[in-house]
Design brief:
The complex is a heterodimer of chains A (641) and B (248). With 641 residues, chain A is α+β, with helices and mostly antiparallel strands. Chain A has 16 helices and 22 strands. Among the domains of chain A are: 267-401, Flavocytochrome C3, Chain A, domain 1; 473-623, Fumarate reductase/succinate dehydrogenase flavoprotein-like, C-terminal domain (Methane Monooxygenase Hydroxylase, Chain G, domain 1), CATH 1.20.58.100. Chain B is α+β, with helices and mostly antiparallel strands and 248 residues long. Chain B folds into two domains: 3-111, Beta-grasp domain (Ubiquitin-like (UB roll)), CATH 3.10.20; 118-246, Fumarate Reductase Iron-sulfur Protein, Chain B, domain 2 (Orthogonal Bundle). Helices cover 37% and strands 11% of the residues of chain B. The longest helix of chain B has 16 residues, at 231-246. The radius of gyration of chain B is 20 Å and the shape is elongated. The chains are: A alpha+beta (641), B alpha+beta (248). At the A-B interface, helix 2, helix 4, helix 5, helix 10 and helix 11 of A face helix 1, helix 2 and helix 3 of B.
């Protein structure tokens, strides 16, 4: 049985990271090239970690399932990246960014981690500018910032609506520079199938070469998982098609605890779904809420075109209910209220399942040119998808699954419960608690990759002997066992020979989770969901059809394998949701509400991280608790009124 | 809506390929082109046939994965967008649609519509960066950058590396791609330091990867989903010449 030790340094909050860095051991420069680090995933966290570790002198192998590392899904982040620079002179500070993030996460994250995140945030902007990231500038040549949900200061740096793209290209170029220098070996079109654990610590990985279909083994002294989040478990989400939970799930089954899997974020400003064949939900940056006003017709069932509804018959529900934050309330509040409006019959659009986001006033006040400059590409994207012009009529938006706050449990060093296995970025659970604030994902990915893991991975490596490079990984006994297990699973999946394509099971699972384990959750329906998931899984293993051979280029097999993992992982997600009998962060627990129908946290019973430990197939996982100690902040009800 | 699809099927780079014909029926106008292909594949799998291999990921026009050639045009007929942003309402009901992979000798075919574009990565590896390590960067506001320079840099930095420019070019030139990166970095003070080395190394890598040369056809600009201008190619050529004459 695992005991969780978060390894949070002692001392005052502001000094913890500095003291800890001093305590971390170093690897002698001449010895660094004897160590080999495997990095899985090339998004912001993976690329930045791989580049930074290679710059230090370690040998790095870097794996991604896309055809190029530049295509990882971080690229789709639009709005911006937070940093406590206080360039706007609006009284921002490291402490304020820390506090906003802790409060935004509904007091379900670690003080020490979040404070460290805020401390390094400024360096990230410096680093990115040095790489040539073309952030927005003012006429004096200084960096521009904008406001984002959950904050009353302007601390979000941006590059039009393509901030994630520009930051990722920065990290990707640093990565490619190390590839050129021979310090990083790049393995695109590889997907991790399993993790190898050897004598109680990480030994390497088994990946699938997605072109040839062959299995390949790689040994490493440390493994970094930066494989992103898992909201594609909902089938329809804002994530890319290939984003999946499989690498994390493999690590979980090899002994890494999975923390808070039920913490998923539903993003408020997405383009509503139009039909049943949709492959994804497109998100539009919530920076739109800076200038757009959200409303629905005051009268339920009002089907008049939006521009003919007079002002007094419009219900600007966020502005009325939350006057201090208005349209800039955090994502969960915005999402939940949209759902309430739609449930009460105020929804708009052909399906009645959306609300308006209106720019008419902003355009009248600032001019169309200014709005175009700020959001031009988002407006264009909206128009391409819906064939409606948002300069002339309000956008329609609705919430969609977007981000996973849950992930592999990591200690302060970002190391999982398997020694030598690290998890960075969205793949870990550590910084966002039960709800992530806008523009904080990019900050966390790059903080983990550029400024935290280079020190903590070194600290780990300093304590272990480098592996002999002479042995071929696949010949080692631990690899042979793992390869055999992977072969068995592959065989099982390709020999089902049923009639039903895998996406039908995925759609069914996704709908079930969206209905019962989305924004609001209830004991009875969660119990029911827990009964239904094994049924779908059973049907999958009887009826799924996977065309072609596994030892070949086979996208349908790649997808079916991921769906098989979702069908296991979703059970843990719902189990976690069931056990967390409180409303917090993104989720309203129906049984836990205030008299006014607002979410009610239960600090007495749930002020902890739930970390699940795998016990073997068919056995119930063990739920560990890591109590969250708040030494600095005062736990307050999260009010944005 | 109903369509006849003529889709390029090819087992691997060594095997010959051919167009195969498929009918798709009852397509709702609001679905995207790739969702229409998803439906085709769903039918093919249900019927026990091998689905059409094609690449896509973000499905919102930013990752650059999904570039294929539709009726002879990379990313299809709509200006300034990617395949995943193309919707079936922009086609005529009953149309015959020909779907092929990018035809560039530096992009070997892997399967059907899937090609290997790692030659583009190799050009970036040769010099598409500022040679700065993590840590030690000065304060982000230490060097002012005019709004105009930041905006101009962003115009080219937004290249998604899809390879459409090379596929649209009769010479299979990747010069719009390379010049976009050269223009992005040389526009900024951080990137100007090593501009000579960058342009020389990237152009050399581009030649080594087997891409052709620009002969001012402007097909690249017309097809670029991010509307990057071909004036950047002239800029790169001018930089290349100056660098070749004065470097080292």
């Amino acid at each position: 049985m695992i005991t969780l030790d978060a390894k949070i340094p002692s001392g005052p909050l502001v000094d913890k990271w500095e003291n800890h860095r001093h305590d971390l051991r170093l690897v002698n420069p001449t010895n660094k090239s004897k160590y080999h680090v495997l990095v899985v995933g090339t998004g912001l966290a993976g690329s930045s970690a791989a580049a930074s570790l290679a710059e230090l002198g370690y040998n790095v192998s870097c794996f991604c399932l896309q055809d190029s590392p530049r295509r990882a899904h971080s690229i789709a982040a639009q709005g911006g990246i937070n940093a406590a620079k206080n360039y706007a002179n609006d009284n921002d500070s490291i402490y304020r960014l820390f506090y906003d993030t802790i409060k935004g996460g509904d007091f379900r994250s670690r003080e020490a981690n979040v404070y460290r995140l805020a401390q390094v945030s400024g360096h990230i902007i410096d680093q990115c500018v040095a790489q040539g990231v073309p952030f927005a500038r003012d006429y004096g040549g200084a960096l521009e910032t904008r406001s984002f949900g959950g904050a009353q200061v302007s601390r979000t740096f941006y590059a039009r609506g393509q901030t994630g793209q520009q930051l990722l290209i920065g990290a990707y170029s640093a990565l490619m520079r190390q590839v050129h220098l021979g310090k990083i070996k790049l393995f695109p079109r590889r997907e991790m199938l399993d993790l190898v654990v050897e004598d109680g610590r990480v030994g390497g990985i088994v990946v699938r070469n997605m072109i040839t279909g062959q299995m390949e083994s790689y040994a490493g002294d440390a493994v970094i998982l930066a494989t992103g989040g898992y909201t594609n478990v909902f089938d329809l989400s804002t994530n890319a098609q290939a984003s999946n939970v499989s690498a994390l799930w493999a690590a979980y089954k090899r002994g890494a605890c999975f923390a808070n899997p039920c913490y998923t974020q539903i993003h408020p400003t997405c383009i509503p779904r139009s039909g049943s064949h949709q492959s994804k939900l497109v998100l539009m940056s919530e920076s739109l809420r800076n200038d757009g006003r959200i409303w629905v017709p005051r009268k339920a069932g009002d089907k008049r075109p939006p521009n003919t509804i007079p002002g007094e018959e419009r219900f600007y529900y966020l502005e009325e209910k939350y006057p201090a934050f208005g349209n800039l309330v955090p994502r969960d509040v915005a999402s939940r209220n949209a759902k309430v409006m739609v449930d009460q019959g105020h929804g708009v659009g052909p399906s009645g399942v959306s609300v308006y986001l209106d720019f008419a006033e902003a355009i009248a006040r600032q001019g169309e040119g200014v709005i175009r400059e700020k959001y031009g590409n988002l407006f264009e994207m909206y128009q391409r998808i819906t064939a409606e012009n948002p300069y002339e009529q309000p956008m329609r938006i609705y919430p969609a699954p977007h981000y996973a706050m849950g992930g592999l449990w990591v200690d302060y060093n970002l190391m999982t419960t398997i020694p030598g296995l690290f998890a960075l970025g969205e793949a870990n659970f550590s910084d966002h608690g039960a709800n992530r604030l806008g523009a904080s994902a990019l900050m966390q990915g790059l903080a983990d990759g550029y400024f935290i893991s280079p020190y903590t991975v070194s600290g780990y490596l300093a304590g272990v002997k480098p592996k002999a490079k002479k042995t071929v990984a696949a010949d080692l006994p631990a690899f042979q066992e793992t390869l055999a297990a992977v072969r068995q699973r592959t065989e099982k999946l390709t020999s089902v020979n049923g009639h039903t394509p895998a996406n039908e099971f995925h759609r069914e699972l996704g709908q079930l989770l969206w209905d019962h384990c989305g924004m609001s959750r209830e004991e009875a329906s969660l119990q029911e969901t827990l009964r239904k998931i094994p049924e779908i899984r059973e049907r999958f293993w009887k009826n799924v059809r996977v065309p072609g051979a596994a030892a070949d280029f086979n996208q349908a097999y790649d997808y079916a394998r991921r769906v098989a993992d979702y069908l296991e992982f979703s059970e843990l997600l719902v189990k976690d949701a069931l056990e967390r009998r409180e409303s917090c962060g993104c989720h309203l627990r129906v049984e836990s509400q205030t008299a006014e129908g607002e979410a009610k946290r239960d600090d007495d019973h749930f002020r902890h991280v739930a970390a699940w430990e795998y016990q073997g197939e068919g056995k119930a996982p063990v739920r560990h608790q890591e109590p969250l100690e708040f030494e600095t902040v005062h736990l307050a009800a999260r009010s944005y009124k | 809506m109903n369509f006849t699809l003529r889709v390029w099927r090819q087992k691997d780079n060594a095997s010959p390929g051919a167009l195969a014909e498929y009918k798709v029926q009852d397509i709702t106008p609001d679905i995207s082109f790739l969702e229409m292909l998803d439906l085709l594949n769903h039918d093919l799998i249900s019927r026990g046939e091998v689905p059409v291999a094609f690449d896509s990921d973000c499905r919102e026009g930013i990752c650059g994965t999904c570039c294929i050639v539709i009726n002879g045009r990379p990313h299809g007929h709509e200006h300034g967008g990617t395949v995943c942003q193309l919707h079936m309402r922009s086609f005529q009901d009953g149309a015959v649609i020909t779907i092929e992979p990018l035809r560039v000798r530096s992009f070997p075919i892997i399967r059907d519509l899937v090609v290997d574009r790692s030659s583009l990565d190799s050009i970036i590896a040769a010099g598409g960066y500022v040679s700065v390590k993590t840590g030690g960067a000065p304060d982000a506001n230490a060097i002012p950058i005019s709004k105009e320079d930041a905006e101009k840099a962003m115009d080219t930095a937004q290249c998604i590396g899809c390879g459409a420019c090379a596929a649209a070019c009769k010479n299979a030139a990747a010069m719009l791609f390379v010049s976009a990166k050269v223009a992005h970095l040389s526009r900024l003070p951080q990137g100007r330091v090593e501009w000579k080395r960058r342009v020389l190394d990237m152009v050399t890598a581009m030649d080594q990867a087997g891409f052709g040369n620009c002969s001012n056809e402007a097909e690249c600009e017309a097809t670029c989903p991010k509307e990057i201008k071909m004036g950047n190619i002239a800029g790169m050529n001018s930089q290349f010449l100056r660098a070749a004459l004065t470097h080292r």
